[in-house]
Design a protein that fits this description.
- 42% of the residues lie in helices and 16% in strands.
- The protein contains 22 helices and 29 strands.
- It folds into five domains: 2-15 and 23-183 and 382-446, 3-Layer(aba) Sandwich (Rossmann fold), CATH 3.40.50.2300; 185-315 and 454-501, Rossmann fold (3-Layer(aba) Sandwich); 322-378, no CATH class; 518-568; 579-678 and 686-842, Rhopdopsin 7-helix transmembrane proteins (Up-down Bundle), CATH 1.20.1070.10.
């Protein structure tokens, strides 16, 4: 094909350089169908016939082609040019004093169309290159327009297309004379991408035809879709003649997981594809189309209802062109008596013949076009026709601007004025770049730096009826003149029919979005839309769909079960409300009650021998300290605060030292009493009541001093421990100074050990009032509890640390209370006969423990 173009171009250029020869095109000519004389001419190339047949003449003459299969829409375009030129010539303000003529050519197949374009450029042979066109309108096909512009560009002849949408034609370096009144496919593709993004169609398939329009458009769509995370599952080419390609398409449509299919083809390919695919029962797909076929209602049929139901796509906007519909429908063969094409169309429309025939009726030429239904007679709305209308006006306004003259120069360019006889295509080309006007039907026309007009589309939806007819409903708009984010919008309260007979929008994703609580990870072996979802690790969360990362919660927060939000960590401390706290509180209260009850018993029987014999003063002080021990256990329960942390450890340590001091005093008194019974012993005067009180006070003051130093230097304080448990906060009392804590415990342990040793030494003294054995047992329990406490305290988690400490306090306190006081209470209450001096003195204690 390029070889033909180069040969023709070379022939044109060579002959144009010869001053003594007239222009002549080698090869087949005679493509002109409609013409009108005028001062200036517009050319047009259309495919009113669309199938080419080659006749080779058996090498007896030059081969030639003839065309069959009539294209109603292309005839409509040609007639729209004729209508618009007539309208312009009637306008006294536009091109005053200048009449506009036209030369409209027909061709089928790329080769003939290029020959038609060359014929339009060279003019009529009989006039020797006179009547040259100032601009060429057409073609509908991007591929043909590209080939034609390669010829026109060196000659500086502007070309204006009404339907060539390939984005490739926007390259001004390759196509400097190309303009179009139809938006570039780039805008349609961006609109399609935004449409898919709006409905969250992330997984799509593409079927395209082997043509410049489809191949370039498919490549551009794939690139734009990738930018917004839309993946193409497959791109399959369709051929009218290849059965294997059709079978591959059918197989993929049945096996693919994508529900959305973009059918990116020209109208002729779409008709062929649908006629073949309707036999394969392909359902459940949402079909999308481009402006090339999406408004062609004649594609609908009962057989295709399951396929095209709910089809959606962008169409050229509807427009109203006054009187154009009447002009088209008033066509008669007598209007163009020399046109064989008009007669051929007439015979097709009315199934008649202008030549006598045995199979069809005779055409009269007076039949009414309003009685038939075809693309040509569909005048309810104009879409592509409006672009033809604007293209003719574009050339007219460019000529009008070129012919303006003010003070001897052109007001637009500042160059010298020209008259209608001096108009050259290159001057028209120059002025097209400055055109900015509004047609009589309100359409604005201007171009950007690439020769592209403003992109405006209607979003249409196919809504099939039971009889197979279709209503192509307008459900939205896409307008590139609007601000970003508002270019695409759906009409409110508009009924939308979805593909696959679905009542709601189809889901078309390779993988459902990763929900909050998971993270999205791409798989290098799959498309980016076919990602993997992984649950967030422990301690992390994601609160967005398709989150690429899981976030770590702040230190005081922890993810919920779904891991989609961070919640404040629950705080844990030993509370009065929980079972363990309530039980320990109950045991503490029981201890206080028993201590109080014992005190009452001793107080009411303080004159009895058993109370007097066991140092009643120290006994009452010991009972008081035991009450304090049981009470201080309660300070460990409840939410830690600054005062409770300081109080619990100091109160516990001081009260226990007071308690052990009393026991130690009683033990020393037992030993001293035994020594006092020996002959010549005077030891009791060294440890009388005053010395006993002083010893208790001294031992206690030492602990008080240790506690004061601890509280002064580094006291205990409330702490939020977030290290032991990841999912919760432990409210605890930090020790402050560990040395202070272990110092007070060590001092208590020292006194308890000393008391145990002394009591053990005094356990076999021969005295019925001897408490040494009871003290030994109590100190044995005390030491066992606190020795066990140390590892349990260190290893217990959270609130159990506090519970262990409370248990140790209660156990050791109950040990002292039970071992020292319960035997005496038993005698006082249940064996009063034994509570006498005579009985106690007569009793001989056993010699073994």
């Amino acid at each position: 094909m390029m070889g033909w173009i180069i040969i023709i171009l070379f022939t044109l250029l060579v002959r144009a350089r010869s001053e003594n020869q007239t222009c002549k095109v080698i090869g087949q000519t005679g493509f002109m169908e409609f013409s009108k004389e005028g001062d200036l001419f517009i050319g047009g190339v259309f495919s009113m016939t669309s199938t080419r047949k080659l006749v080779d003449n058996g090498y007896q003459a030059f081969p030639h082609t003839y065309c069959t299969k009539w294209n109603d829409r292309e005839l409509k375009f040609a007639r729209t040019v004729i209508f618009t030129v007539a309208e312009i010539n009637r306008d006294s303000k536009l091109l005053p004093g200048v009449s506009l003529g036209y030369r409209l050519y027909n061709g089928c197949g790329s080769e003939n169309l290029i020959r038609a374009a060359v014929e339009a450029v060279t003019g009529d042979d009989s006039k020797g290159c006179s009547g040259q066109i100032q601009a060429l309108l057409g073609h509908s096909s991007s591929g043909v327009s590209e080939d034609i512009n390669i010829i026109l560009s060196p000659l500086s002849i502007p070309q204006v297309s009404h339907l060539s949408t390939c984005a490739c034609l926007s390259d001004k370096r390759l196509y400097p004379t190309f303009f179009r009144t139809v938006p570039s496919d780039r805008f349609q593709i961006i609109g399609l991408v935004q449409l898919m993004e709006y409905f969250d169609w992330r997984w799509v398939g593409i079927i395209y035809s082997a043509s410049l329009y489809s191949e370039k458009g498919t490549a551009e769509f794939t690139k734009e879709a990738k930018k917004v995370g839309i993946c193409v599952e497959y791109t399959l080419p369709y051929s009218k003649t290849s059965k294997s390609k059709l079978e591959a398409i059918v197989k993929k449509l049945r096996e693919s997981s994508s529900k959305v299919v973009l059918l990116f083809m020209s109208l002729s390919y779409t008709k062929s594809f649908l006629s073949k695919i309707e036999n394969y029962n392909i359902t459940g797909k949402q079909w999308l189309g481009g402006e090339s076929w999406i408004t062609q209602a004649d594609l609908a049929s009962v057989e295709r209802k399951s396929i095209l139901q709910g089809a959606m796509g962008f169409a050229l906007p509807e427009a109203s062109i006054p009187d154009l519909g009447e002009f088209l429908l008033s066509l008669k063969p007598s209007d163009e008596p020399r046109s064989a094409i008009i007669k051929a169309f007439w015979e097709k429309f009315f199934d008649c013949s202008f030549s006598p025939s045995n199979t069809t009726t005779m055409c009269t030429g007076t039949e009414d076009l309003r009685t038939i239904s075809s693309d040509y007679t569909d005048v309810t709305h104009f879409r592509a026709e409006n672009n033809v209308y604007k293209a003719v006006y574009l050339v007219a306004y460019a000529l009008h601007a070129l012919l303006q003259c003010k003070n001897g120069s052109n007001p637009t360019t500042g160059k010298p004025c020209v008259n209608k006889n001096q108009v050259q295509p290159k001057l028209v080309l120059e002025h097209i770049n400055y055109v900015n006007f509004t047609t009589q039907n309100g359409a604005k026309v201007f171009f950007d730096e690439n020769g592209d007009s403003v992109a405006q589309y209607d979003l249409v939806n196919w809504q099939m009826k039971e009889d197979g007819s279709v209503e192509i409903a307008n459900i939205g708009q896409y307008d590139t003149s609007f601000p970003e984010g508002k270019k695409f919008k759906l009409k409110e309260n508009t009924k939308i029919v979805w593909g696959g007979n679905s009542n709601e929008v189809l889901r078309s994703v390779c993988r459902e979005p990763c929900p909050p609580g998971t993270r999205k990870a791409t798989n290098k072996f799959k498309p980016v839309c076919c990602f993997d979802c992984f649950e967030c690790p422990e301690g992390t969360m994601s609160n967005q769909t398709n989150s690429p990362d899981c976030l770590i919660c702040p230190p005081e927060f922890w993810p919920n079960e779904k891991k989609d939000k961070c919640l404040p960590k629950p705080t844990e401390y030993l509370s009065y409300k929980e079972i363990m706290g309530a039980l320990l509180t109950g045991f503490g209260c029981v201890g206080i009650f028993l201590s109080l009850l014992t005190s009452i018993i001793f107080l009411t029987h303080k004159e009895t021998p058993i109370v007097k014999a066991n140092n009643s003063e120290l006994s009452f002080l010991l009972l008081f300290s035991l009450k304090l021990c049981f009470l201080c256990s309660l300070t460990f329960i409840g939410r830690p605060s600054e005062w409770s942390c300081r109080l619990r450890h100091t109160a516990f340590s001081i009260t226990f030292v007071l308690c052990i001091s009393c026991v130690l005093g009683k033990t020393i008194v037992v030993l001293m009493a035994f020594r006092a019974t020996l002959p010549g012993s005077n030891v009791m005067k060294w440890f009388g009541p005053a010395q006993q009180r002083l010893s208790v006070l001294t031992f206690t003051l030492i602990q008080v001093v240790i506690c004061i130093l601890w509280l002064t230097i580094n006291p205990p304080f409330p702490k939020r421990n977030m290290n032991y448990y990841k999912e919760k906060i432990i409210l605890e009392c930090a020790l402050g100074s560990a040395v202070g804590f272990w110092a007070v415990l060590g001092y208590i342990g020292f006194l308890a050990l000393l008391c145990f040793i002394l009591a053990f030494l005094a356990r076999k003294l021969p005295d019925s009032f001897n408490e040494a054995k009871l003290i030994t047992f109590s100190m044995l329990i005390f030491c066992a509890v606190w020795i066990t406490f140390i590892p349990a305290y260190v290893s217990s988690p959270g609130k159990f640390t506090v519970a262990v400490e409370i248990f140790a306090i209660l156990a050791s306190s109950f040990g002292l209370l039970v071992c020292i006081f319960f035997p005496k209470c038993y005698i006082i209450i249940f064996r009063p006969e034994q509570n006498s001096k005579k009985h106690l003195l007569g009793k001989i204690p056993p010699r073994t423990l």
